[in-house]
Every structure is written in structure tokens, then in C-alpha cells.
Design brief:
With 384 residues, the chain is α+β, with helices and mostly antiparallel strands. It has 9 helices and 18 strands.
Length: 384
């Protein structure tokens, strides 16, 4: 009788494991097929050996993996592609449990801190308002952990992609949901795209909340200022941009024009083209002001102007989320219904791809902590 019960248990366990493998393989197959159809994959596969996936060698499942472990393995199909508009995430489900690494012991974190490479600038303590996280390196990956009653809770994981650029795995409430987002950047002592920084004081990189989306003003007898805060292509922003453009298109500009693209999250040429043509027609000196929150079509705007002889770029390196993008907003749900893949469907302009996951460097770097960045640009103009 005992042998019969034991045999039944073995069969049940084997059957469960086999079912788990089959479920994960089905997810792998659909995700792989979806990746192969991406314009970004097709454009990059010839020049990137990491995109020659060996599914039978690098994506093997044994049935013992948690959903999170399967998720992390599947991310390996996405991470080698320089396409930062992609996203992959878990679908909130009561059957999903937090990864075993979500809660870490104090001794484990203390050990990681003690073993930290002092030459690695990304490691250390980060702040966001009243909250702090400790960034430590465990098993080759950066873990952002928050202390709570002598235990540490995992907030995010960073996977290196290009120098100082990372994929980030973010965790939802109790870590029962998680998502892969692309292209967090370590720049000027902060993790741009997360809200976490190594300083707990004001930085002039960030814009005041009261800044209008669009603005124009004369600073002095030599300098005009143009604020372009969004190129979004929704009806409201297009209407707002058209109304604003109508007020400036005939204005007399001074010899120097500061074009402020900081925190411009992009959009499309349906909104930006009129401003691009306006700046191109200007015969004086153009001073583009950018930061790491200058993204997508705002970066294309910068690329379109950067090689003009009358253009100087100030600030810090832009994000490097430029190429591809999504017209249709398609989400593909995996067969197991545990995960979904947000795809891109737009081709890249050839001149944009070199900056994807690297960003556009400024001609002149500005100090994040000295004084307001517009004032710093004005000081540089006065020196010319």
C-alpha cells in the first residue's frame, strides 16, 4: 500500500513538473516568434551575435522554476535588442508568488556591502524623498533593497546593457507583479528613470513643477528663450502646440535662441515638425538645452539639428530611447497567461540607431548643482 501511494506521488510530481515545462516552453515559443518579427530584431540581428538565440541550450526549463525565474529567463530574449520602447511584464494573478529573493536577510546584505567593489560608482545609498534604498551587487546583478524591521525588501533589479545603461525589473505590491522596463541610466549620481539619486538635495537637472509645457520669452537684448516641453501627438497636445506656435511664428528673435528640451518625453513629428522648421529657419545661434529626460522624438529633434554649424547642445547626455516605437500599441499575452509583451512596430531611421541605448552627448556639459541651467547657458553665451 505504501509503495502504491509513493508511486502515485512520484507520478503526480513528475506530471506537474512536465506540465510546468510545457507551459514555460509555450511561453518561450510565442515570445521568440514575436521577437523575430520586431523591426528592431531584423535590423540588428546581422551585427549582434547575441541575437542568434540557441533555445535548446540557453532557455531550458526543468519544471522546478518559479514564475519569476521563468520570467527572468524569458527576458533573455529581449535584453540583447537595443529597442527601448519594448516592455515585458507579469499579469497580476493571485497564483503568482513573490520571488524567493524578494525578502533578504540583513546578514546577506551586510555581506554584499562588505564585498562591494569600491571602484564601482553605482553601488551605495540612494534617496527618493523620505525613502532610501541600498544598491548592492549579488550574483552579478544590481539589487535595490529597502530596509524594514531588520529585513531588506527587494525594490528592483538592474541588468547592465550598454555602459551606464540598464534594464530594470520593477516590483509591484508585495512583488507579486513585476515588469521589465528598458534603459535606466546612471548619470550625474542618479538612476535616471527611477526617481532614485545619491543626493538628497536640489539638483538643477530636474525642472520646477510649475514649468509650462510651452513658453517663449525675451531674456535680454541678445537672447530669446523657447520652451518645448512635449511633442505628444494626442489631440489635446497638438491643439495646445498649434495655438502656442501661432503666437511665436512671427516673433522677432534675438541673436541667440535657447531651445529648452529638458524633460520632453517625445511624441511625433505631427507636433514637433513645425518647431523644427522654425528653428532651422533661424539664422542666429541656437543653444539646445537637454537632459536625460529628453527622450524619443525630442532626441530625434536634437539629432536633426546637432550637426548644423549654428547649433550648440548643453546639459547632459539624453536618454537614448530614440529608435523604433509603437504605432498600434499591441500587447501579446503569453499562452500561460502569466506574462505579456508590449511590442514595437516602427522601423528606425538609420541616423537614430547609433544613439539607441547611448544617448546624445552635449557639446557642453552643465553642472547639476551649481546654478540654474538656463543661467549657465547664458554665461556661456556671454563668453562667446
Amino acid at each position: 500500500m505504501k509503495k502504491t501511494i509513493l508511486l502515485i506521488l512520484v507520478i503526480m510530481i513528475f506530471g506537474t513538473a512536465k506540465g510546468q515545462v510545457s507551459r514555460s516552453q509555450a511561453d518561450l515559443s510565442l515570445l521568440h516568434q514575436s521577437v523575430l518579427k520586431l523591426p528592431s530584431f531584423k535590423e540588428q540581428v546581422k551585427d549582434n551575435s547575441k541575437l542568434n538565440f540557441n533555445l535548446g541550450r540557453d532557455f531550458v526549463f526543468d519544471g522546478d522554476e518559479t514564475s519569476f525565474q521563468v520570467f527572468m529567463k524569458l527576458c533573455g530574449l529581449i535584453s540583447p535588442i537595443r529597442d527601448n520602447h519594448l516592455s515585458f511584464y507579469s499579469i497580476t494573478d493571485s497564483t503568482l508568488t513573490a520571488p524567493s529573493s524578494f525578502e533578504m536577510s540583513k546578514s546577506k546584505i551586510d555581506s554584499a556591502v562588505s564585498a562591494a567593489d569600491s571602484s564601482d560608482p553605482i553601488l551605495g545609498t540612494y534617496y527618493a524623498g523620505k525613502y532610501t534604498v541600498q544598491l548592492v551587487k549579488i550574483d552579478g546583478l544590481y539589487h535595490g533593497v529597502m530596509e524594514s524591521e531588520d529585513r531588506f525588501l527587494l525594490q528592483f533589479i538592474l541588468q547592465p546593457t550598454t555602459p551606464n545603461h540598464f534594464d530594470i525589473i520593477r516590483f509591484g505590491r508585495n512583488a507579486t507583479s513585476y515588469r521589465l522596463d528598458r534603459n535606466v541610466v546612471f548619470i550625474n549620481q542618479r538612476l535616471s528613470g527611477t526617481g532614485w539619486s545619491k543626493y538628497n538635495s536640489r539638483s538643477f537637472v530636474e525642472l520646477p513643477f510649475e514649468m509650462p509645457t510651452y513658453d517663449f520669452k525675451t531674456i535680454n537684448e541678445d537672447i530669446s528663450y523657447l520652451r518645448l516641453g512635449s511633442f505628444a501627438t494626442n489631440n489635446k497636445t497638438i491643439a495646445l502646440s498649434d495655438e502656442f506656435f501661432g503666437t511665436i511664428k512671427s516673433k522677432e528673435l534675438k541673436r541667440h535662441l535657447i531651445v529648452d528640451l529638458r524633460n520632453n518625453g517625445g511624441g511625433g513629428y505631427k507636433t514637433s515638425k513645425k518647431f523644427l522648421d522654425f528653428v532651422r529657419r533661424f539664422k542666429g545661434q541656437v543653444h539646445l538645452l537637454v537632459n536625460n529626460y529628453t527622450v524619443s522624438n525630442a532626441e530625434q529633434f536634437t539629432i536633426d539639428l546637432k550637426d548644423s554649424k549654428n547649433v550648440t547642445i548643453y546639459g547632459e547626455t539624453t536618454r537614448g530611447t530614440i529608435a523604433y516605437g509603437s504605432n498600434m500599441g499591441v500587447r501579446i499575452q503569453m499562452p500561460s497567461k502569466r506574462f505579456a509583451f508590449y511590442i514595437t512596430d516602427m522601423k528606425s531611421r538609420a541616423k537614430d540607431l547609433p544613439y539607441e541605448s547611448y544617448g546624445i552627448d552635449p557639446t557642453i556639459n552643465l553642472d547639476p548643482f551649481k546654478v540654474d541651467w538656463v543661467e549657465q547657458v547664458i554665461e556661456h553665451i556671454k563668453k562667446k
